Amino acid sequence: MKIKFPFFIFLFLLLLNSCAKKISVVDIVDGVGKAIEVAEKKEEPKRILVFSKTAGYRHGAIEGAIEALPSFFKPESWDLEFTEDSSVFNKDLSSNFDVVFFLNTTGDVLNDLEQEYFKNYINNGGAYLGIHSAADTEYDWEWYGKLVGAYFAGHEEIKEGTVSILDKSHPSTRHLDERWKKVDEWYDYDHNPRGEVHVLAVVDQGKMGPDHPITWCHNYDGGRSFYTGMGHTEETYTNQEFQKLLLGAAEWLVGLKDGDCDAGLAVNYTREIIATDIEGATELDVASNGDVYFIERFGKLKKVNSDSGEIDELGTIDVFTGIDNGLEYGLLGMALSPDFDSTGRIYVYYSHPTENHQTLSRFNIVDNKLEISSEVSILKVESQRETCCHAGGSIEFDKNGNIFISTGDDTNPFASDGFSPIDETDGRKPWDAARSSGNVNDLRGKILRIKPLEDGSYEIPEGNLFSSNSGRPEIYVMGNRNPYRISIDQKNNWLYWGEIGPDASEDDDSRGPMGYDEINQARTAGNYGWPFCIANNKPYRSYDFENKISSDYFDCENLKNNSINNTGSINIPAANEAFIWYPYSQSEEFPLFSGGGRSAMAGPVYRYKGQGFPEYYENVLFIYEWSRFWIREVHLDSKGEILHINDFLPNEDFLRPVDMVFDKQGNLYILEYGQSWYGYEDSKISKITYKE
Fold this sequence. Notes:
mainly beta, Rossmann fold, 4 domains, nine-stranded mixed β-sheet, 8 helices, 13% helix, 33% strand, elongated
């Protein structure tokens, strides 16, 4: 130990101070001891073993890295020891080093005894940092492969790639921009380690597909592990961003800085089934005390008690379902009032049993029962019951107490060959979506936004799409086909929804583009194109259904609704492009969407509040597919644009997810419809929690 000024001077100053303040000698001695203790702790550097032995290909960058490392691992904080002698892996490894770097090692670099010593080191709380070809090392040692996270499988030529940072709270990555352009040799791995490790960054190069982890960390077998696939070139080690990445990683590995490397591990999430046998599941919501309320299409409202786990049937609303005729009606949407704790009020959207409209109503729950007599009808939306389809029905509150209601286009899609249904033939109104979705004076094929009032009336929030003179003022978004599930980001009130699209499996020169499903984001009010445009503003052609004649393509920037069934303005707002879009087949623009059925739905954007799901999920939009049985994470950047998309808990089986919500404690609830139409044998509600 070295103290930076002579001890007797320090003691003399303390004595002088004690005379002035009448401090006892005991206090002086205690103070001196504490000062010495602080000096010792401050000056003792963390010890790093940098191991660069190669038994295969040798990277030319090793020498450059060895030269560069001391420039940012400063000697007052870090004690670096460089070696290619594997005998250093002995019984003294734990006492000699706080962290071990594998710097571009290759091949079989440790014998059996040295492997055992290294394993014991990790078991006893040691730390490992693997760089680049550390993944090209010890292929016959399974334990090491799990420590690294994945083995090297191949690479392409050195090129520039874009590294997307998925976790900016970790000390290794918090300094980086969300997108980092860097030249390197980008490794492919023998498998995608997501779910086994915590992925910090992905890259857009290589042959691993759209989800290509390149830097990750995890707690493993008693110790800590960090790996980055970057580090092939000598220039990398003089890159300040990369230097800070290694330094932050080392600081986490030795415990100098906090970082959550458990957030991406599937084993840290528990899935509990809290309800089963749900008949025609539609929507759910969670009260502040953890009670889960959910509805069934046939009219029942039920509750899962958070304390006992018992399920109570609170009441039944009389609804029209039209199931015998293939219609899509019933009890469609539900949301607890923002003041539910004090009022017991609940809002539902349902098909009136005798009249041709959908109804948004408010009810009271009193003594654990739904008071049918308390109904206050707030809004009615016309619906035809002559033929199928598309009722929408999702309802959500924003942080200002405004309620959003999604409505379908109320249009039969089966006579338009999977393209745009604008049939103006006499007597064919239900086959014309221009009369609803494209009509500024019709509430169908829209997402509405209103402010419900105490007396059952409502106000129009500022910022909706139309004034009372130019269109229905309730409209926030128009040009929807079937926005079946919506969500509101409670931080900024941005609207998200899944748009279930038409069925054409390929483009047709006489009609227009193939069908696409969409995930959409609306920061402000707007038109999203249907039935004139779809996806990223791919236009349909105007088509005479009676004579089967095609004419011009619609102009998505200058839309005109010339349908004879249109009761509103001919000139309508320009169409906005979709946020995400994908067909039945492999998507070119979003390659993770590899093909299958289509029923796009949008779930919540997670906001971290110090509990529940980890901070890693902050600003992540959850989307899900009823037809394809998956849930995905859409990582958004600071501007709300897509940073990366990957699967959420890919090893879990979600049976047609139909709604999902986070409670106030940050736990995730998923309503699963089950595999049979209107059945209930395998329907369920899952609660997913992060480790405590």
